[in-house]
Design a protein that fits this description.
disordered N terminus; eight-stranded mixed sheet; two-stranded antiparallel sheet; 10 strands; single chain
Length: 196
């Protein structure tokens, strides 16, 4: 059961129909825009991510923020307007990076926390929603610790067969309440679940 605090922690992900966030070789080419998830998270004042995800995340969004008219890292296109808007928001929004191994973070608004207890304390402080960017290991850890209040998923009409499972590290059964399911013209379905 999600803890009852003054802040809501929301994990938003793009996921294949069979529950993967990457293909077996790390493929993410089926995701059109990494900024789409932010549109589902209102009133955010903190982003949360894990130490494994942070280096690529930081490089990707810092590059777009610094050079919005150049080709996006790991892509062969210039950034979309929604990605530029996300990069600008990310540049001014505090980021909490949960890591026991990272020595430093380059993102100007980022800080490292070393354990779940520190993150739980931050969640208990007054504020707006906390957006859990990822990755899968972090989300599983937070679900196992009853810290995530909502899951918002963009389910893509693709079956990957293998890959990195979004919920592969969850160690217990979790009951969810459906809040909303909305189909899109592209065939994706945006679903929101509240964790009981």
């Amino acid at each position: 059961m999600a803890s009852n605090t003054s802040r809501t922690m929301i994990a938003a992900f793009q996921v294949s129909l069979d529950g993967f966030i990457q293909g077996p070789n790390g493929e993410k080419d089926w995701v059109n825009s990494w900024a789409d998830a932010l549109e589902m998270i209102p009133d955010v004042d903190t982003f949360v991510l894990g130490g494994h995800m942070y280096p690529d995340y930081g490089a990707y969004w810092e590059s777009i923020y610094a050079n919005p008219d150049r080709v996006v890292p790991y892509q062969d296109r210039i950034p979309a307007k929604s990605e530029i808007a996300y990069a600008r928001l990310a540049a001014r929004t505090p980021h909490i990076v949960l890591s026991t191994t990272l020595k430093s973070v380059s993102w100007p608004t980022a800080q490292i926390v070393r354990n779940i207890a520190e993150l739980r304390k931050l969640k208990g402080q007054p504020g707006k929603n906390m957006y859990v960017v990822g990755g899968a290991t972090l989300v599983a850890s937070l679900l196992n610790e009853d810290l995530i209040d909502e899951l918002r998923l963009i389910v893509h009409p693709i079956i990957l067969g293998k890959g990195l499972a979004l919920f592969g590290g969850v160690k217990k059964r979790l009951a969810l309440d459906l809040v909303q399911a909305k189909p899109t013209e592209s065939g994706r379905v945006i679903v929101t679940y509240r964790v009981r």
